[in-house]
Amino acid sequence: TNTPVTVTVTGAAGKIAYSLLFRLASGLVFGPGTPVRLRLLDIPSAVVAAEGVAMEIEDCALPLVDSIEITDDVTAAFDGANAAFLVGARPRGKGMERADLLTANGAIFREQGRAINDHAAADIRVVVVGNPANTNAYIAHRHAPDVPAGRFTALMRLDHNRALSQLATRLGARVSELDGVVVWGNHSATQFPDVTYLTRGGEPVTAGLDPEWLADTFIPRVAGRGAEIIAVRGSSSAASAAGAAVDQMRDWVRGTSGESWTTVALPSGGEYGTVPDVVTGLPCRSRGGEWEVVEGLEIGEFQRARIDASVAELVSERDAVRALGLA
Ligand code: NDP
What we know:
The protein has ten helices and 14 strands. It is α/β, with parallel strands linked by helices. The chain folds into two domains: 5-154, NAD(P)-binding Rossmann-like Domain (Rossmann fold, 3-Layer(aba) Sandwich), CATH 3.40.50; 157-317, L-2-Hydroxyisocaproate Dehydrogenase, Chain A, domain 2. Strand 5 (125-128), helix 5 (133-142) and strand 6 form a beta-alpha-beta unit. Helix 5 (133-142) packs across helix 10 and helix 6 runs antiparallel to helix 7. The longest helix has 23 residues, at 301-323. The protein is globular, with a radius of gyration of 19 Å. The structure holds NADPH dihydro-nicotinamide-adenine-dinucleotide phosphate. The site of NADPH dihydro-nicotinamide-adenine-dinucleotide phosphate has 27 residues, from helix 1. It comes from Dietzia lutea. InterPro entries: L-lactate/malate_DH, Lactate/malate_DH_C, Lactate/malate_DH_N, Lactate_DH/Glyco_Ohase_4_C, Malate_DH_type2, NAD(P)-bd_dom_sf. One of its GO terms (molecular function) is L-malate dehydrogenase (NAD+) activity.
């Protein structure tokens, strides 16, 4: 067998982690030959519940589990980490203003960014799930100056997967036949799920999609899917969020296939007129263990306006975080 990978999951007692941890322990991300050392971080009041999750992982008797450690100590949690899923975040409480939310999360992600900078392994890969995910990733990245910017990503793969699934249903296709989707901008209501480059079995299909359906049904449905799940299921999405986090880390570690791309939110290099350093959704391929932004796509007027609007929201979140002295 290979050397074990050390994987840190924060918010380990929460709903998303409850789906995520078992998939990690089953080898879905690092492959069937790679044992995992699991590090479960949560806040002190949740550590006992995290121990309960660890007991269940033990009871699965999974052959790839090398060890499980539960901690409320941020430094210990990231020590030697090769991969980190930052799931734990402060949820928006009743009457909480955006600045309160940014302050609470800013403190969490600043501390974790610093711990990653000082203690994680040189090949650390970070996927931020906890909301506001893009800006939380930005904060962590800003506090980890020794870690390459591209190692800090936020999760927009769930938005991407939601878009793929809606399109497959509309076209009567399988998800596996579709390619060329990208979700630009922020993991928020302003996100822009873009079908301009959509192909089915390698053939362009966008011309056959009704523009009214795209603008009035598809885009709002994908962007509002989280609220729809809460309304129907009575609880926020958890398994699908965990599944998307697995997809993102697996593709990052093991590569995307051929010319296919996916959506990753990462600190922008200014591609496609986005603002450098804000963490925005971009079309990416994974090659040699690194994300590469797909180059040379043509951007039309409709796309320009939507991308700019969502990036403007990210810039305002960044400015709010800066004004609070958090990044
Ligand atoms: P979940 O596990 O359901 O969600 C965790 C985070 O993921 C939330 O910020 C949530 O945002 C976000 N998220 C991102 N995408 C999605 C999606 N598609 N659907 C649902 N959520 C999404 O939250 P729980 O409350 O069950 O668990 C949170 C855990 O985090 C608790 O155990 C808590 O103690 C812990 N925590 C840990 C911290 C730490 O490790 N330092 C800090 C703070 C909390 P949103 O709320 O906007 O839906």
